[in-house]
Amino acid sequence: QEYLVESGGGLVQPGGSLRLSCKSSRLNLEFYAISWFRQAPGKEREGVSCISMTNEPTYYLESVKNRFTVSRDNAGSTVFLQMNSLEPEDTAVYYCATDLLDYCSGSPEYWGQGIQVTVSS
Length: 121
Known about the structure:
This protein has strands at residues 5-7, 10-12, 18-23, 34-39, 46-51, 58-60, 68-72, 79-83, 92-98, 110-111, 115-119. The protein is mainly β. A hairpin with a 6-residue loop joins β5 (46-51) and β6. It starts with a strand and ends with a strand. 31% of the residues are buried.
């Protein structure tokens, strides 16, 4: 059983939007920094974004800045990745992850199963 569960992926046309969600029934996500990673076919996994426990600071991959926004719900138990102006290059399996720290360390140990995002016309 995965520690984290992603939802909200799917197929979208270029220029469209999707919102991914990350939840856990085994962890209290409000206490931890949560990262989003992605892996495209034939490419290495890369970090996309991260939000610390206190919601600041946040971090973004350069190519998604000003298009993607990471946030939490008021309870802190769900983390979102709002993806706007999607491009075919954003096509990948997206994962949320944490290392049970309150800051973004870049080396999470606990992962979701991943969810497919496909940007295509």
